[in-house]
Specification:
heterodimer; A: 243 residues; five-stranded parallel sheet; 9 strands; B: 174 residues; alpha+beta; three-stranded antiparallel sheet; 7 helices
Chain lengths: 243, 174
């Protein structure tokens, strides 16, 4: 499989969301929430954006407290992480204000415990530095944040990472598959994968292997080439699925 | 200290030396010593007579005055260590991911990874692994970032066989 970054519809929505937050009218509403089920490409897209924009990337832990968060943030900013919480906050804030560094918090659902104490600290930084903060979470993070109106009101934009569309699948096949994939096979990949990017990549890898084993390489591949051959394995009990 | 100065000081300490002795005693690698000697000869600090290298009057003067010569390979430096190179960008992603493969890095960084990109990063990861900055998961072969905390990507000098942590100055021989 070729190695390339595929700019899917999720990526376009993410980039548009960040642009909207950065153009915001209210300076203190500098937060963006990104959520979605696993396997839709959240991590890859966020890493790409973070690298391109020099963002600070933190991964929340289950035992995060406001101070723990400040220490981690100070370390990422290459600042002294010792001192009282007040000193630490001041040091971090000064740096963030000056550099306007965007901050990304992955697994942000862990910041909701203890009445969102850590998320409140993150909100403090976002408000005072007027910097962009991107929260990334799964499951019920949106519902969780909605119970804290003072935080929810700071969220300028919400992006939900959803299943890959047929155009996403077609684009992914074009960019990553070593073989040419016909439209009917792309449709079948979309159906088998249920739009999950991880599964799409697995199926593409299977197609490449089967094409090589059966000497189909160099032709445009269609459903007929794989009739009766499982391209995807649904471990949740339904057995192999073929084209 | 640069490779060139190391070679010059070695020759100064031994009067007349064979090429193979410089390579063996300095542990700098054949290519690095070749490049250094070419530079020193071109600039008139070193001469070659009947297979032996020795200092010229100019070379002796420089050594006596403790002057630095800037030419040839710098220890630990590589052209790729400056600017927003693929390796520098990869270092940033390594810090975010912590556990990764070469493919994981290429998929984030490249709109279309070429063979050259793959070789470049692949060699770089192998060098960081040999230097102990990366570990490997025994079962899957994934790389794990273990050492090295600063924002600057380590510099890999293939000729001198060194990896330099540009944040601390520490040099690892690989």
């Amino acid at each position: 499989m070729k190695k390339a970054f595929v700019k899917t519809e999720n990526y376009a929505r993410f980039a548009a969301g960040v642009a909207a937050v950065e153009r915001r009218g209210a300076a203190e509403a500098g937060m963006m929430l990104v959520h979605g089920q696993p396997g839709h490409g959240k991590s890859t897209i966020v890493y790409r954006w973070a690298e391109e924009n020099g963002a600070v990337f933190l991964r929340a832990n289950v035992d995060w407290t406001p101070r723990y968060f400040l220490v981690e943030l100070a370390k990422e900013l290459r600042l002294d992480s010792k001192g009282t919480s007040q000193q630490l906050f001041g040091r971090v804030l000064e740096h963030v204000v000056e550099r306007q560094v965007p901050i990304i918090i992955d697994e942000a659902e862990y910041t909701l415990k203890d009445k969102a104490a850590t998320l409140e600290k993150i909100r403090d930084i976002s408000d005072r530095a007027m910097c962009t903060v991107i929260l990334i979470g799964m499951g019920k993070i949106l519902d969780g944040i909605a119970t804290f109106p003072q935080i929810y009101s700071r969220i300028a934009h919400i992006v939900e990472f959803s299943k890959a569309s047929l155009s996403d699948v077609t684009l992914t096949c074009e960019k990553l598959c070593e073989e040419k994939v016909g439209p009917d096979l792309a449709t079948e990949i979309h159906k088998l994968s249920k739009g999950r990017m991880r599964e799409i990549l697995n199926i593409i890898a299977n197609i490449e292997r089967l094409a090589k084993d059966n000497s189909f390489t160099g032709e445009e591949l269609t459903r007929k080439h794989f009739a009766g051959i499982p391209l995807s394995y649904d471990w949740q009990g339904k057995g192999g699925k073929g084209a | 200290m640069s490779v060139t100065m190391d070679v010059l000081r070695y020759i100064a300490g031994h009067n007349a030396v064979f090429f193979r002795d410089i390579v063996k005693e300095s542990e700098l690698g054949v290519s690095a010593v070749e490049v250094a000697l070419r530079c020193l000869k071109r600039r008139g600090f070193v001469k070659w007579v009947e297979g032996l290298y020795g200092l010229t009057e100019k070379g002796l003067e420089y050594i006596k005055q403790g002057r630095e010569i800037k030419c040839g390979p710098e220890r630990g430096e590589a052209a790729s260590s400056r600017g927003n190179t693929l390796r520098q960008r990869a270092w940033k992603v390594m810090h975010m991911r912590r556990v990764f493969t070469l493919a994981d890095l290429l998929v984030v960084l490249c709109d279309e990874a070429s063979k050259k990109d793959e070789e470049n990063l692949g060699n770089y990861l192998k060098a960081l692994y040999k230097a102990g900055l990366l570990k490997k998961a025994a079962r899957t072969g994934h790389y794990i970032l273990s050492e090295g905390d600063g924002p600057l990507a380590p510099a890999y000098n293939r000729q001198a066989k060194t990896v330099t942590d540009r944040n601390t100055g520490q040099v690892y021989h690989v």
